[in-house]
Amino acid sequence: MKKDKSEAVSCRLMVVGAGMAGTAAALFAARRGIATVQAGLTGETLYASGLFDLYGVTHDSTRVLIDEPFLALKRLKQNVPDHPFSRLSIRQIRSAFELLTRFLGEAGHPYAGYPDKNARLITSVGTIKRTFRVPTTMWAGVRALEEKAPCLIVDVRGLRGFSALQIVDTLKPAWPALAAASIDMRQENRLGPKYAEHIARGMEVEAARRELAESIRPHIYQAKYVGIPAILGIHDTKGVHRDLQQMIGRPVFEIPTMPPAVSGIRLKETFDRRMPQLGVKCYYHHRVYSINRQTDGRFAIELGKTEPETTVTADCVLLATGRFLGKGLVAQRQGIREALMDLPVCQPHDRSCWHREQFLDPRGHAINLAGIEVDDRFRPLNQDGRVVYDNLYAAGSILAHQDWIRTKSGTGLAVATAYGAVEAIDRSLACSQR
Ligand SMILES: Cc1cc2nc3c(=O)[nH]c(=O)nc-3n(C[C@H](O)[C@H](O)[C@H](O)COP(=O)(O)OP(=O)(O)OC[C@H]3O[C@@H](n4cnc5c(N)ncnc54)[C@H](O)[C@@H]3O)c2cc1C
């Protein structure tokens, strides 16, 4: 038997989605004093590396690696006007990152980066990645790589997916002053594989960090820096990092591990904890079952954990339900569908055009550019190019004409488009109040 709907909630903005785009949108809206409700299932944030990419590889088939993202974004705007980034000014993109990283800094997870440049840092497989903002626990790794300074990379025996030797072997030709060491951790002496999350949670206890420091110290020799997998706590990462550096007497940097990475868990837990404190009414781990526009122009949104339990009515809706992974889009025999409102999806005209023959074709695959077409205010458009509803918005990876995986722009695209959409929502709500 169906339960009676137990709750009715009214708000100005309903954000659907709990990934990076939805969470950033709820944050930006709360900062503007907009009464906001956010609902979503667990986002892909849990799987993220914690690095905030903006624009790391060019959108075209030349696939040039980008050091100066804002210059490259200006060129993108000239060459690809449909790209969601092209609907934003550099000011908006900067403000989005500034607000997000300030929020995280205040929550105890500070980020670092150059004002205009991408930083380079090493990954757990020994490749070099360009990204825009880096957790401060990883920043010494950017400096170490720049200086090619003597550096020790340490792994923990039993921790899967992270081999100091592999990193050093891959990077040594370009960085000869690298050395590798493996350590055991008695605190984590269970049999079988070790998990970064367990070790990280253990690190919040002082004895565990002391043990880690003591295991690393005999391997240091001439090393000026020490790199370790991202295991330095979940909640008090700043304190764990500071302590470990003091104990070791060298700058220490974390290297992101394979997903689900500790750095993604830190982000997710920070958002889960802090967003309600900003005044956002959060329905995390809730599915949105339907969104219907009422005769008065407001939306009625039904959501719940296993069945519709709550109805939210909202002046505006922002759809941040992601692409295929987030399940905002579904691929079917007949084509690609938007899952919640059946909005028109910009997509190749038939399935045979979804993919190119070669998986690694430098031009990418047409299916990865599919998504929701929007206007300059991030309102979805129908096939005639008209706004579907003047109070419906979309942001993040669900948007058409971008391939964030190829262009290394996951977080950048999510937060910048969320910022653009919330700015437009704020203007429209202010007008409707007059
Ligand atoms: C493995 C992995 C590694 C990554 N690494 C990086 C990185 O190194 N750097 C970087 O910048 N970015 C990275 N990203 C990208 C980034 O984390 C985001 O996935 C991306 O920016 C897209 O965000 P989004 O919010 O648009 O979509 P998603 O993250 O897909 O979020 C969509 C949200 O909508 C929810 N949703 C969908 N339908 C419903 C419904 N009916 N009811 C309720 N909720 C619903 C989903 O559950 C999810 O919460 C990575 C992503 C993955 C998956």
Overall SS class: alpha/beta
User: How would you name the oligomeric state of the polypeptide chains in this document?
Assistant: single chain
- Shape summary: globular
Helical proportion, percent range: 25-40%
Number of beta-strand segments:
17
The fraction of residues assigned to DSSP E strands is 15-25%
The CATH superfamily of the largest domain appears as: FAD/NAD(P)-binding domain
Q: How do the SSEs run, as a string of H and E?
A: EHEHHEEEEHEHEHHEHEHEEEEEEEHH
CATH architecture of the largest domain: 3-Layer(bba) Sandwich
CATH class of the largest domain: Alpha Beta
**Low-pLDDT segments, ≥5 res:** none
Alpha carbon gyration radius: 23 Å
The small molecules bound here are:
flavin-adenine dinucleotide
Cα end-to-end separation:
45 Å
Instruction: Enter the CATH topology name of the largest domain.
Output: FAD/NAD(P)-binding domain
What is the overall number of helices?
11
Mean pLDDT reading? 94
